[in-house]
Amino acid sequence: MSDQLKIKLSIANRVYPLTINPKQEEGLRKATKKIEAMIGQFEQNYSVRDKQDVLAMCALQFAAQVEQKSIDKEYVNEEVQEKLEALNELLDQHI
Q1: Would you state the pLDDT for residue 81?
Q2: FRET label pair with 45: which of 3, 16, 74, 83, CA 20 to 30 Å apart?
Q3: Cα(48)–Cα(25) distance, rounded to whole angstroms?
Q4: d(CA 26, CA 7)
Q5: In which domain of life is the source organism classified (predicted)?
Q6: Taking a C-beta distance cutoff of 8 angstroms, is the pair 10, 16 a contact?
Q7: Which residues, listed in sequence order, are joined to residue 6 by a DSSP beta bridge?
Q8: Rounded distance between C-alpha atoms, residue 7 and residue 20, angstroms
């Protein structure tokens, strides 16, 4: 437990104390900055009064990005598989 790091992150004017593996710190701090930037964008572009609404919109945005990357990766994997099969057929014809 001594290799754990205690940090505090501020999101939407609330402080969250965390005990983490030191390797996680950079990712958590970058994520916090992205969330804060997105909160600022939503508050500037929409008349949102409730922080919970802004945080829900942020969560939806991040979840949609993750899902879209998964969909894109699946499509790329299928495309690569098709090309590998075609290449394999060409090699079989020449062997």
Answers
A1: 86
A2: 16
A3: 30
A4: 11
A5: Bacteria
A6: yes
A7: 19
A8: 8
φ, ψ of residue 42 to 5 degrees: the values are: -65, -40
Q: What is the pTM of this model?
A: 0.71
Residues 6+ away with beta carbon under 8 Å from 61: 38
48 by Cβ neighbours in 10 Å (0-12 / 13-18 / 19+) ranks as middle
**For the chain, which ranges sit under pLDDT 50?**
none
Give pLDDT, residue 95: 82
Residue with tokens 């098709």: 82
- Name the amino acid, one letter, at 13: N
Q: How far apart are CA 95 and CA 92, in angstroms?
A: 5
Indicate the length of the chain as a whole number. Answer: 95
Tokens standing for 8?
Answer: 């505090």
Q: What is the pLDDT of residue 78?
A: 85
Q: Both tokens of residue 71?
A: 């969909």
- Amino acid at position 49, single letter: R
